[in-house]
Amino acid sequence: MAFMKEKIKILIIEDEESIAEFIKMGLEAEGFMVYTHFEGNSAASIAKEINPHIIILDIMLPGMNGYKVCSEIKKLIKTSIIMLTARDDIDDRVLGLELGADDYMGKPFSFKELLARINTRLRNCFPELANIISVGLFLIDDGAHEISFQGKVLSLSPTEYNLLRYLLVNDGLVLSKQTIIEKVWGPEFNGEENIVEVYIRYLRDKIGDKDHNVIRTIRGVGYKVVVG
């Protein structure tokens, strides 16, 4: 299970550009869409324009401070705010949380911990994003009951969806026709095994797999998906 990170937007509001760039590079390497802003006065309007899922917000900003920025942003959009500060006073933390911050990290901090906190905020505030399974160029959205390939949503019947999903989550494993029938059609299915061949053909047509490079036939055994 994975977040669809290329659709998750993170805004860093931090006046120390070296820190902002450090965080940005790390998060982009993780696959997130990342934006930076360096002062407080226009931070709320920038946040409204970008509408990020996560905001990493420094308290000590030029112009409007992070506390006021946090309060303003929370009035405008649904987002999760992680506040950063070099100050370690418990009263500062309480104030930030009272103004709408969702989490708090003191400087210096480890990127690994920041990433863990971001993932926690995503799971808690945007659980629908955790219903995405990423397999190569395929994205399985169980919430919407959709599968995308190369960025386009495939038009699939319920059976096609269930079959393709089963093949994808078992990427690289050889699956017999009988196993596929039991998992996709159910153990009570009394039809012919060649129903699998028919639906495999449907799927190959829909993803343009003319050479059977994605959904491969293992003669005498069954099928396997190779997306890596």
UniProtKB/TrEMBL annotation:
Q: Example GO molecular function term?
A: transcription cis-regulatory region binding
Superkingdom, natural source: Bacteria
Domain Response regulatory stretches: 9-122
Q: Mind telling me which GO cellular component terms the entry cites?
A: cytosol; protein-DNA complex
4-aspartylphosphate (modified residue): where?
Answer: D58
Which SMART domains does the record match to this protein? REC (SM00448), Trans_reg_C (SM00862)
Claim: Cell membrane is one of the keywords in the record: no
Family annotation (InterPro entries): CheY-like_superfamily (IPR011006), OmpR/PhoB-type_DNA-bd (IPR001867), Sig_transdc_resp-reg_C-effctor (IPR016032), Sig_transdc_resp-reg_receiver (IPR001789), WalR-like (IPR039420), WH-like_DNA-bd_sf (IPR036388)
Feature: DNA-binding region: 130-227
Q: Which residues form the OmpR/PhoB-type domain?
A: 130-227
Q: Which GO terms describe its biological process?
A: regulation of DNA-templated transcription
Keywords assigned by UniProt, alphabetized: DNA-binding, Phosphoprotein, Transcription, Transcription regulation, Two-component regulatory system
The role this protein plays is: May play the central regulatory role in sporulation. It may be an element of the effector pathway responsible for the activation of sporulation genes in response to nutritional stress. Spo0A may act in concert with spo0H (a sigma factor) to control the expression of some genes that are critical to the sporulation process.
- The name under which this protein is listed is Stage 0 sporulation protein A homolog
Q: Which organism is it from?
A: Clostridium cylindrosporum DSM 605
